[in-house]
Design brief:
Elements (H helix, E strand, L loop, with lengths): L4 H30 L9 H5 L5 E2 L2 E6 L3 H9 L2 E8 L5 E7 L9 H7 L3 E9 L5 E9 L2 E10 L5 E2 L2 H9 L7 E11 L1
Antiparallel strand pairs: 1-2, 2-3, 3-4, 4-9, 5-6, 6-7, 7-8, 7-9
């Protein structure tokens, strides 16, 4: 006796339903972490707060955003600004984040994405003994050191964006958070 296609399909579905149910439940459990993809509105006080005028005693000169940076900032759940450190010529990127988001990702990902070769990643302490995650990036004969860290509202610092994301998502760290990326020219 030949089994009909419908009967085969029914038996297959009966055998597979636990897997389908498990996948659906996992998807539902992860959905809150995905977010809406749109930036949450900033509280009125945060929206009016000015960026600092200096960093570690050096004057900050605001830099204009590129078109790519402007598009990214439109969806970012917080604020983003770029500055040049007047005395050193270094660059500083400040991001204020209002809620946990995967849009705050490691700087190395951004640098690789725009074509730089990233190497020599390590944790480093600066002259003030502040811990940073740093790497060197090279492109077309240009070399920079990029260091980053994230600080929460209580002053707790993270040098790993994944650790920050999970601490923030699980309520172990509260915001707003400030992500600081310091770019130093190393010459060629």
């Amino acid at each position: 006796m030949k089994t009909s296609v419908v009967e085969k399909a029914r038996r297959w579905a009966q055998a597979q339903w636990p897997y389908a149910l498990t996948a659906t439940l996992l998807w539902c459990a992860m959905l809150p972490l995905a977010g809406s993809g749109r930036a949450a509105p900033l509280p009125a006080a945060a929206a009016q707060e000015e960026w600092p005028r200096e960093w570690r005693g050096q004057a900050l000169q605001p830099l204009a955003r590129s078109a790519v940076e402007a598009r990214f900032a439109e969806r970012f759940p917080g604020r983003i600004a770029r500055f040049r450190l007047a005395a050193a010529g270094d660059e500083l990127v400040l991001r204020e984040v209002q809620r946990p988001t995967r849009m705050l990702h490691p700087a190395a990902d951004c640098w690789r994405g725009i074509g730089w070769r990233v190497q020599a990643a390590q944790l480093r302490r600066d002259e003030e003994q502040t811990l940073w995650r740093c790497f060197e990036a090279t492109q077309a004969g240009q070399r920079v050191r990029v260091c980053e860290r994230i600080v929460d509202a209580q002053g707790r610092a993270f040098t790993d964006t994944s650790a920050w994301f999970w601490a923030a998502s699980l309520g172990q760290s509260s915001g707003p958070w400030q992500a600081i990326t310091h770019v130093q020219g190393l010459g060629s």
